[in-house]
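re: ur question from yesterday

yeah so i grabbed the chain u mentioned. its 273 aa long if i counted rite. heres the sequnce exactly as i have it in my notes:
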Amino acid sequence: MSDPIPNAVSDPLELRAAALSAWCTADPIAKANAAMALGEAAATSAVQLETRAVFDDQLRPGRPQQPRLVHPRDVPQRGVGSDHGRVALLHAIAHIEFNAIDLALDAVWRFADMPMQWYFDWASVAFDEARHFQMLSDELQVRGHQYGDFEAHDGMWEMAMKTRHDPLARMALVPRLMEARGLDVTPLIIGKLDQAGDQQAVSILQVILREEVGHVAIGNRWYEHLCVKRGIDPLDAWDSLANQYGANRPRGPFNEQARLTAGFSQEELNRWR
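ran it thru and got these structure tokens back, copy pasting raw so excuse formatting
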């Protein structure tokens, strides 16, 4: 879907309708710009907020015609030993960040009757993810490419659609599972890029890693909030949700310091070993 939903008002912005409008935007740069504008408005409280609005949950996010989406096993391996391999790797990360924009926007518009801070938190995440995408998109252009030049997969969004009816399941299986995986693998990627002498890529991923810790922390806080509200144990609830939605348990090695900083407990990490 490429046309914005004509429901947002200007001055002040209605936050959830504006998030839906940005989410439905297909052009990657336009989506990123809209997400950043949304985050800036939320940060300055220049917004209205209709927490009870209900939108069509069968919608799909706006996507460009490229990249072509394939099964994860069909995405080519991305070694860092060549210029082409590093460009393909940066493109893969750009695709993750593009999806992360949609995931943050989705959390803003999709779930009704959440606390006000929920909407402001995820608007701030949308801003960061859009900035990450723009950094990577700019770097791809410097290297003679653009977002869409390489095949990608849609695994992260498939889990988002599975959990679209329940914010607890969304928090459990997207920020706390799929996005938290980035805390483990990004330092390894940074190390390989550093060995390859690609300091520009290293500096970009260091920014992304630092800020993703905060994003996962937001997911952890809301997961725990919803568990307390429903009177359920967070550890047992995670196991139950993973089984219900067919999610695999996290696999190590873990970046324990980053995960602990992001709000995972040592007990939970020990259960996953």
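noticed a couple things. The chain is about 65% helix and 0% strand. also The two ends are 41 Å apart (CA to CA).
anyway ttyl
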